[in-house]
Amino acid sequence: MRLDKFLSNMGKGSRTDVKKMITKGLVSVDGDIIRKVGFNVDPDKNEICVNGELISFEKHVYLIMNKPKDVISARQDKVHKTVIDLLNGYGNRKLFPVGRLDIDTEGMLLITDDGQWNHDLMNPKKHVSKIYYAHIEGRVDEEDVKAFSEGLILKDDSLCKPADLKILSSGEISKIELTISEGKYHQVKRMFASRGKRVLYLKRIQIGGLRLDDSLELGEFRDLTSEEMKKIKLEA
Known about the structure:
The protein is of the alpha+beta class. The protein has three domains: 3-54, RNA-binding S4 domain (Structural Genomics Hypothetical 15.5 Kd Protein In mrcA-pckA Intergenic Region, Chain A, Roll); 62-124 and 210-235, Pseudouridine synthase I, catalytic domain, N-terminal subdomain (Alpha-Beta Plaits), CATH 3.30.70.580; 129-207, Alpha-L RNA-binding motif (Alpha-Beta Plaits), CATH 3.30.70.1560. The chain has six helices and 13 strands. The chain has helices at 3-9, 15-23, 115-122, 142-150, 187-193, 226-235, and strands at residues 27-29, 32-33, 48-50, 53-54, 62-67, 96-97, 106-112, 130-137, 164-169, 173-180, 198-207, 210-211, 221-223. The strands form two sheets. Strands 5, 6, 7, 8, 9, 10, 11, 12 and 13 form a nine-stranded mixed beta sheet that branches. A four-stranded antiparallel beta sheet has the order 2-1-3-4. A hairpin with an 8-residue loop joins strand 6 (96-97) and strand 7 (106-112). Helix 1 (3-9) crosses helix 2.
């Protein structure tokens, strides 16, 4: 593999960025400074460093993002900014979002280039739970809790699996947390619409056993830790 491609794939910058690093003498292979961007390396055998930092080879990338509004969960789009557009420094990695969040929904989104991992998390048979925080127009009460727990019939006559609705506060604008285990189109909004209520604000805060990192500002992302990967696996 070319040295510049390896460094770009490992998140050290765009191909242009890493080429500059290499030509400036900031990159070494097995202790020797390499200034040739097309130098061939074997990530499994060579010790590759940038500014003295050892760069470990990672076959796949696993990211957690706090998705903002007005950004769509897609690889590319001719009209809207995508979550992939928010990523910097991942070069030629063919990253894609795991599942989707509506354009006006904020919160936890996983991004990867591991197709099998994506399949496992999205497989309905795996029953990976998702928790949402929402502001609801109208008073949410115990009758709603009961209806959600029994499985709602949406306006198109499709049936939702039982869901756990937790009321945080009830009033003209109610605040709730909702746990679901499936991913129908606009599901949370359609579930409340079937009860005559409207979702004003929606944020996903948890997938499986993994909670959204509160330190991530909207639009920010980072690599999942090995411990966080285990939490996802436990549920998946």
